[in-house]
Protein 1
Amino acid sequence: MMPLRYLILADGDFSPMTSKTANAFIRYHPERVVGVIDRRLAGRTVESILGFGGSIPIVGTMAEGLALGPDAVMIGIAPIGGRLPEDWKAGLLDALDAGCDVWSGLHTFLSDDPQLAARAKERGCTIHDLRRPPPSLPVASGRARHVAPFVILTVGTDCNVGKMTAQLQLTHALNQRGIRTRFVPTGQTGILIEGWGTGVDAVAADFIAGATEELVLKAASDQPDVILVEGQGSLNHPGYSGVTLGLVHGACPDALVLCHQAGRSFIGEYREAEWTAIPPLSAYIEAYELVAGMVHPTRVIGIALNTVDCEDEEARAACEQARDATGLPVNDLVRYGDNSELVDAVEEALQNYRLAREDAGAV
Amino acid sequence: MMPLRYLILADGDFSPMTSKTANAFIRYHPERVVGVIDRRLAGRTVESILGFGGSIPIVGTMAEGLALGPDAVMIGIAPIGGRLPEDWKAGLLDALDAGCDVWSGLHTFLSDDPQLAARAKERGCTIHDLRRPPPSLPVASGRARHVAPFVILTVGTDCNVGKMTAQLQLTHALNQRGIRTRFVPTGQTGILIEGWGTGVDAVAADFIAGATEELVLKAASDQPDVILVEGQGSLNHPGYSGVTLGLVHGACPDALVLCHQAGRSFIGEYREAEWTAIPPLSAYIEAYELVAGMVHPTRVIGIALNTVDCEDEEARAACEQARDATGLPVNDLVRYGDNSELVDAVEEALQNYRLAREDAGAV
């Protein structure tokens, strides 16, 4: 199958921090994006908004976007609660009329909408609801504890701080060093980028850990050296903490990388609400290690700092501060590239893990 | 509406520890149970198995059960993963033929089974799937922090240790003392007993806390003195911990009651797996207070011990040991009745909460 070329719908919300799915897909597959819809920014380029993405055009309407010849339309933003903005429907019907597939990570399944479903059928197009859970999932039983590869999970101080991006950058950096990796997507953006995975935030609550466990076991069956699991939410997020903990206990990570956005001081700051003050990184390290360790012992081996909002000097200072506060290696893998003390720390943890397994007679 | 009289299906699994839904319903509404189906125990009484429930008969087949004249059949056991044992279907079809409604808390929705649904329609009966989530749920935003009533949540060292029962007993004990209460059911058994609630373990993972928050706000709108929320799972359960944490952060409890079964040493001991050793109670207290406190400060104010398996002397010793280990009031509210140091502790915590609110000018 030829990789699809997408028109990305991000109307009213395309920006470095809000249009998470759009941005990540553009970062990793810019050649597969024909354009972005956001009427506020029509006429500008993606690069001028995100700082990457080159000359991909931003257009104001679905008609202009469809004129760019996409194979499919991707919903590129994740409204809180994951529902479809009512005024997008007409545009999606036009896209289906033009023969485009639709890829969506919304909680509201577009293929359950009678009008959209009928139109898709009529036009021979497919609506892909990335959050639709697999039909049968197990209850987790801690089986991921026993996989041979070294399992790393990114955990966060909030939603939308860069857990997936840090993990993808880390995957790339380890590959560069000749380490065999398997990235495990647990959300719609990761699934779009990697082409497999399960949106663990959309499964029935009893199966969060079970869905994660299945993904880790599947990744382990490819016998990589390292499995890198995409984290979700945050342990202290008033809405999503359950997803986070289920993911932690389902994945049974041997190591955690704590992700934080420099300068963010409240949970949910980039959305409507400012719910909860973000405590010091050391409080997160204590809480994640304590609660994860109740099922499988683990530790935070480094901090992935997201400094997208910072000037250079500010970014350097933020890394220094996080290093001083935690005593751990810190890096922004996007800003400073892949070769860093953070990647060294992961490689060292991998070596120690292997030695411990050899000592235990497991290999 | 006249309260329905139930025939309870618990075939192969009726016992003090396994048939959780059946047992709890019988404890609180024995007058509404015409019989229990378990072919292993046919001819015996419920009292002879559970130690309560009087002369309610246990029968071996659906036909014998239907002869007792129930209005409805209730699925009284919760198989792990919550699916329908294939061999029950014929019996349920017979029950529908006999004009019975069906009440089920399984994850597999019986009303989605084409054969069962068709038969129900044909016979004018209703299949109630208690775990079917409400159609529209919010993402939680910590709103339960601000309700006026004192909110208590039961938390556990494992599933199936007595979190719902302890909370129902506590509700009763507070009512006896003239304190206005509202019990909040979060699982199928509580919903059956109380007639409202949401099965928070069956909602899409992103909405666990949101579903809980809605229930607490609804309970608060009745202006009780105390809201008692039914807990689910355990913070260190490999499969269900996500539900537990979502519930904790959605409910924003002002106080926790930690529930434990005396003598249980592994998570899941009463099911197939022995996953994880149960750490000391003090480790649970630390972990629950730490993680809950990341959204809303709370503390464990007492221990509800389930001593159903113990002889009298053993039960007394277990309570004493838990008291020594934690410094907290301990009681088995079922064995020793409602008037106890645990209820005193709750009443004292309520008084302190009121004083603190008065000091803060909230009332």
Protein 2
Amino acid sequence: MSIAVLFGSRSFEHEISIVSAIAMKDIIKETLVYIFIDKHREFYYIPASKAKANFFSSGEYKKCEKLELKNGGFYKKSMFGQKKLEFDFLLNLVHGGDGEDGVLASLFEFFSIDFVGPRVEASVVSCNKYLTKAYAKNHNVNVIDYKHFAKNDTITIDEYPVIVKPIRLGSSIGVSIVKEQSELTYALDVAFEFDDEIIIEPFISNIKEYNLAGCKINNEFQFSIVEEPQKEEFLDFDKKYLDFNRTSKVQKADIPAHLEFELKQTFKKIYNNTFEGSLIRCDFFRIDEKIILNEINSIPGSMANYLFDNFNKILKDLSYSLPKKKMVNITYDYVNKIQSAKGKA
Amino acid sequence: MSIAVLFGSRSFEHEISIVSAIAMKDIIKETLVYIFIDKHREFYYIPASKAKANFFSSGEYKKCEKLELKNGGFYKKSMFGQKKLEFDFLLNLVHGGDGEDGVLASLFEFFSIDFVGPRVEASVVSCNKYLTKAYAKNHNVNVIDYKHFAKNDTITIDEYPVIVKPIRLGSSIGVSIVKEQSELTYALDVAFEFDDEIIIEPFISNIKEYNLAGCKINNEFQFSIVEEPQKEEFLDFDKKYLDFNRTSKVQKADIPAHLEFELKQTFKKIYNNTFEGSLIRCDFFRIDEKIILNEINSIPGSMANYLFDNFNKILKDLSYSLPKKKMVNITYDYVNKIQSAKGKA
């Protein structure tokens, strides 16, 4: 089987996407066809042997063949016309902008390319923290309380500490913990640097955290182990991004069966049916016996491979179980009716 | 000024998009550059003189020049390479699938094409009735109560009449009013024909309905008149689609100033900031003095031109006030750090 791994693009997480993509070499036991999107949003075909981090940071990738995206696939220029790049399906590994906000999903949808990754709706719902909360609440899943603010709003905080987050970025980019009033202005400046809208949540320390990854294959859920992530008070960008480089297995969290069951039930409520076609990781909090959704990673770092025993098989099986679009039957009955009403038919 | 009018595409509303696009000839006093997307999702450049409904239904459009969408614009084949199709901005007039679900918005975003129309997030929020409700509730806007069901759910109804709607389609496609138990199975079959998820709402007759269109230009809202649509118990597809053909002005609803004010305030809550760059029509109900959002038309039929005195000016002004994307500064600091940690730098 051959799998196209798409990575890079115009995203704050551009370089960690590169790291995630390279990690796949050790994880996926299939032929990998690397497609890099550079910051100008040009597509390049990268031979697997060249997929090393400094090949991209140095700009050397520009010597590789450019690809054009058109109906049905990616095309290389060849001596006579164009040649289609062959692969069985595409794995979207573009983290953050373009990859997780629905833009690339739309391109694959429009140009009919089979892919593993969140569809447009799932992307929008998971990459905007405000919409994630609305979506989760609508599915009867608990979320942390929050206030939503736009750039020119008056922002007053009654109780500290709080956590300030740009609404659209993944990871910890632009996120600050604010312990007292005097730190607020700086934290707001940082967050508004990245987005015109933010959310502010109470910051609760010593929360129990649980991560669970999974997907739905032929109407059956396939779950990873539950991980209890090792954490400091707050994972900074560098620490958090070790995940993207991660290929060795982690320890299963030592939790009672009923808690594992509850986490899985909550995961299902979130996944169904919006996230079909994707393998996601949900990060949960547990406060006072309640399971609370913190965030949905619709393209988790290195695909959360380290949480699965059989990642390669799950990915392949998922690729055989991608959601099919409804057929749209286009007729011209209405136009013909108008024409005949006008006496022009 | 020259405006590209994009229409057609793989949508249940394909043909009414054609009707909407043709209506623009009488409405927009600028040079129109027509771009048709056929059901195979191929782009065609259509000379304005040929933009008549039966040109598309007959298949004659296939004789027109094909266009390729690439970074920066649409390109025609020319004798020596390719020639860019020139226009000042693009008006997205693809109703329903592709146009209003975020797919085409993503293409314009990715390939850097200035356009008037809903962005990806706004599209997803407005085209999925379930997400519209979640979004509205989160913005403290009232919605009609509802139950959400997926294809294999057990569906029981306690109180009739109800209205059954596929969650993702615009207009009245697949929608039924169900007055008693015996009619339910058929209505469900129809709705599930179009979508795997539906919502069921109580059907309330004799509701007051108000439509209001508008957009934000340089941080100021520009509103249409408020229309009180003439209605039967339930507008069927054909009647509803007269809007798409509509170019003559309608009468302003005879309502008190405080109600108009309230409708506008509610519109602002919905529009801000997600719908920037688009001209939308919100359809409201009024029940027991409460304003209730029924639906958001992110690309209303014939752009709701008939509700504005100065549609041409508003459209042009809006095109000068499109949302700008945040710059994404791509660095390779993290990759370089890993490299040097590995002793490879």
Protein 3
Amino acid sequence: MSLAEQVLEGNIRAAARLMRDIDDGRPQAIDELKALYPHSGKAYIVGITGPPGAGKSTLVDQLTAAFRAQGKRVGVVAIDPSSPFTGGAILGDRIRMNRHACDEGVFIRSLATRGSLGGLSRSTSDVALVMDTMGMDIVIIETVGVGQDEVDIVKTAHTTCVVMVPGMGDDIQAIKAGILEIGDIFVVNKADRDGSDRTARELSNMLEMRNATEGSWSPPVMKTVAQRGTGIPELVAEIDAHREFLFTSGCGTDFLRERNERHFMEILRDRLFKNALAYMESDGLLEQIVTGMGAHTLDPYSAAEEIMASIMPGRK
Amino acid sequence: MSLAEQVLEGNIRAAARLMRDIDDGRPQAIDELKALYPHSGKAYIVGITGPPGAGKSTLVDQLTAAFRAQGKRVGVVAIDPSSPFTGGAILGDRIRMNRHACDEGVFIRSLATRGSLGGLSRSTSDVALVMDTMGMDIVIIETVGVGQDEVDIVKTAHTTCVVMVPGMGDDIQAIKAGILEIGDIFVVNKADRDGSDRTARELSNMLEMRNATEGSWSPPVMKTVAQRGTGIPELVAEIDAHREFLFTSGCGTDFLRERNERHFMEILRDRLFKNALAYMESDGLLEQIVTGMGAHTLDPYSAAEEIMASIMPGRK
């Protein structure tokens, strides 16, 4: 039986193996993903993002418990910054989520932020696909960070929760503006701290300044204290409300189109580059180009044009 | 006279126009960059990165003043998260750096984190190239954030300073590990706060655990209070020491090779993808693929292979 067939039967070890193959970028994983694809699209994907120290992991832990209490199976994809010393995800199997360790209805997978640009976003989509097809009802994607990578990753999610925390310094203003567009729900966590009302109010004001189009979703601003479970049922209710909105408003169709396009683009981008790289390395071309750049006798723009002319004849 | 020629004469307006063209992805900017490339390589590039709220902007402001006092011309490339509402860099021309606004020896440029994956890293290299060739002695690249994007961006710098701040929550552990490899100098800013000694000690311990190879650079951990200028002369001295190390140890040669290779790769990756996209759009192929994915009759992996076969004949 192929790995894909085992995954479709809900085999956890097979799913874990396939995810490892994806993470390692092994070519045989592609065939398994091809076989799984027609069976995908059943899981509901929830993204959790926000700046460091916002308490995202605790929130994910609480959400997992809440969804489990509803009888749903929950997959968690946690994106960790990679360490060159441990050679992978340093948070490993998420020790803090230990309370779900013996629960067969919870599957947790960490992905490291190693590898090339865009690669992580693609791996996340692929791992979410495996979780979907192995029978998870909810897949939670958690990212640590606030950069473009994270923005691209959470775009995979049906509902994205942006987690903030009161009083995190000046840069937060900049970050807020950058992530306003991606949040379907805003969460001010650690809301028992000073300044939480102000942060929530500021967020609401910024959201109101947007020229929302008729019939679009108005992102709510929630307050939680994840450590004590405060505000979690309300957050789950808002996630359900957004889900309901997506599937009744027609916005869900647009979202799926965009998500599919992005997923395809990432795969294509990756493949194009790998092929070009293989071509350049086999001919010793890369070496020549880098040497020419070092001597300032060749510029990288002209070099790229020459490579293009060779591998994509007839296009410029 | 071409834009490139004007830039080489130190024309600030021409440089600003070329940077705008780069930021907008205008094709004519490429020809100017080609013309500038042989004249590049004179500026020393300093990267400043770290999590939100670490006080990086204040530090950059102080460093700029310190380099100016040495009679050096300073360019600053500040990477801001983009806002969909202001349509670009929300911090604009860095109002807080007002004190350098009338100084002809300081050129500040904000880049927004809009656009496609990898695009920002490429734009940063290109903008740094313009600042280099217009006669800046020092180019400071400041990034807000801690993701893979930021890591790639600071790899452009000769010397990378990672700025931390005492007590920023649990995620900091994860971040620290991820950025240990990219920091040449670690700065604990806001060192007048509680816990700064502990943060500095933890950082030193983590750095010591690395198996440093013989003759490699040992990153120092500095303490600063940028707001009051405390520790800035010492930081400048460490940057000078690292520069000296790069040019006497031979490590500088390896660094330049790697940087050139990365710069070329980013340009090539971008070009490959743009060409593939143009091909797919002109033939209505993208539409067909996304529709097929929506119906689950086509998977994105097979679709990418078909496109590859068409545009890169003879390669798979």
